[in-house]
């Protein structure tokens, strides 16, 4: 869960967990799992990753010189980055 797979299945049977490692209420693990699924299915993690990649690309373009100025100052690069921002 929380990964990038088409299908996942995990089956636990007769599992014992130390009390200090229990997340949530005892015997209510499915509800914790469903909460994780809500996050995964919302797509918020994809949006956050896309934003990080865009920010990384901007920083990279700021650090690369072309014709004596940062690549990020080229109009075609600025237009491309602006297009990606508006897609979010």
UniProtKB/TrEMBL annotation:
<dbReference type="GO" id="GO:0016627">
    <property type="term" value="F:oxidoreductase activity, acting on the CH-CH group of donors"/>
</dbReference>
<dbReference type="GO" id="GO:0005886">
    <property type="term" value="C:plasma membrane"/>
</dbReference>
<dbReference type="InterPro" id="IPR009100">
    <property type="entry name" value="AcylCoA_DH/oxidase_NM_dom_sf"/>
</dbReference>
<keyword id="KW-0285">Flavoprotein</keyword>
<feature type="domain" description="Acyl-CoA dehydrogenase/oxidase C-terminal">
    <location>
        <begin position="27"/>
        <end position="83"/>
    </location>
</feature>
<keyword id="KW-0560">Oxidoreductase</keyword>
<dbReference type="InterPro" id="IPR036250">
    <property type="entry name" value="AcylCo_DH-like_C"/>
</dbReference>
<keyword id="KW-0274">FAD</keyword>
<dbReference type="InterPro" id="IPR052161">
    <property type="entry name" value="Mycobact_Acyl-CoA_DH"/>
</dbReference>
<protein>
    <submittedName>
        <fullName>Acyl-CoA dehydrogenase AFT10-1</fullName>
    </submittedName>
</protein>
<dbReference type="InterPro" id="IPR009075">
    <property type="entry name" value="AcylCo_DH/oxidase_C"/>
</dbReference>
<comment type="similarity">
    <text>Belongs to the acyl-CoA dehydrogenase family.</text>
</comment>
<dbReference type="InterPro" id="IPR046373">
    <property type="entry name" value="Acyl-CoA_Oxase/DH_mid-dom_sf"/>
</dbReference>
<dbReference type="Pfam" id="PF00441">
    <property type="entry name" value="Acyl-CoA_dh_1"/>
</dbReference>
């Amino acid at each position: 869960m929380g990964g990038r797979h088409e299908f996942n299945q995990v089956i636990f049977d007769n599992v014992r967990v130390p009390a200090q490692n229990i997340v949530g209420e005892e015997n209510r693990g499915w509800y914790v799992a469903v909460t994780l699924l809500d996050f995964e299915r919302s797509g918020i993690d994809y949006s956050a990753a896309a934003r990080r990649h865009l920010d990384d690309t901007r920083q990279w373009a700021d650090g690369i010189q072309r014709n004596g100025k940062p690549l990020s100052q080229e109009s075609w690069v600025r237009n491309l980055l602006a297009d990606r921002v508006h897609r979010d």
